[in-house]
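Dear colleague,

Thank you for sharing your sequence with our group. We've completed the structure prediction you requested, and as agreed, I am returning the results in plain text so they can be pasted directly into your records. Please verify that the sequence below matches your submission; if there's any discrepancy, let me know and we will rerun it promptly.
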Amino acid sequence: MNNKTQNLTTGNLFTQILFFSLPLIASNLLQVLFNLADVSVVGRFAGDIPLGAVGSTTTLVYIYVGILMGMSIGTNILTAHSIGVGRKDVYDKTIHTALIINLVEGIILFVIGQLTSEFVLNLLGTKEEFLSGAMLYMRIYFIGLPAQAIYNYGNAVYSAHGNTRKPLVFLSIAGILNIILNLFFVIVCHMAEAGVAAASVISLYVSAICILISFMTKDSRIKLSIKKLKYDKTIGAGILRLGISSGIQNAIFQIANLFIQGSVNTFPYIVVAGNSAAQNADSLVYDVMAAFYTACNSFMGQNYGAGNKKRVTMTYFISLGYALVIGIIMGFTLVLFGNEFLSIFTTNSDVINAGMQRLKIMGICYGFSAFMDCTIAASRSMGKSLIPTVIVIMGSCVFRIIWVYTIFAHFHTLPSLYLLYIFSWTITSVAEIIYFIHIYRHAWSYTPKH
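Please find the predicted structure tokens below.
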């Protein structure tokens, strides 16, 4: 392997995982900034109706983004494995096969999004005043899905190498551009929903182009080459196995959340707008915590590939601890400063009060999702993907849907709706931890598949 590749199999894990994750946190926050900038600019400069329109698409958009993120997890794990065993031939096949898979997935999701978004919005009972703006936003935003796929691929490969700073630089450029274009399109051009969507699309393509150029430069550690762009069936099957299951897991969360969004839509539009504003806190907290899950994937991937049992164990507990602490801190901070946070998106006090009903409950609960998500990441890093996905489907989709049609249907209050998150996280976490303990005990009797 390239001697510039960072070795994650030696050194102090506490400091390594922390400093590995910090650029990822910044990078993930910038990705969240894309959507936050959309909602903030359109809410403050175009009004509550465009705010509700863009906010009504959040869960649906995250389904597609989550599927793309899932494939990047498969890319990250297989790339880390190939680095861990030190086989350049496998590494070259992995990064080129992964590029093909991620790009094709982005194009397929773009097509599906264009064909089905109107049907899904109507199915969710999107309020009439929001429907046209929501449709316009999504159809433009989905044009950026292939670019999102390329950036996620690049971020995953860089992370597998131990380099989390380079993607941050590219995303910083795209993030600044996104904010400038948001303000220009909405304030100057009066484009509202269409303007913030177009700004996101342009920014996504800028970040994707930067990634590809960096991979193809002469001094790049990645060594991506058009001549080597060929699909390897064996490696492709491994990436798809991990990536599809991860994508399904992400999608399952959001599909369940569609039922929650449908429940929110039964309240007055002020409540819908408030929920849309407060929902931005979800991605803010989750994506910061997700940096430690990526660290778990990368560190466990390399160490599992190298057969280093002790560091695999320590990586899991350290990543879990960091994610739990940061989730608790951010959650309570949002509870304390919720009004200030919501005022970023709207000046309407009624909308802010409605949003606080969500923040007060979710802020206390966010950190505990770490037990579920970090354990899932650990299982996948050890090559297991099917059972963790099935557990997520049962605990975080089926359970939530049952809750909506029983507990929420009976009480029909916002607290009775939002409390389903902590209960579903708890049930799913217990099952995921039991399964991880099982596979961990049997993991060292065979060699990881590459």
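Summary note from our side: Residues 446-450 have pLDDT under 50 and may be disordered.

Kind regards,
the structure core
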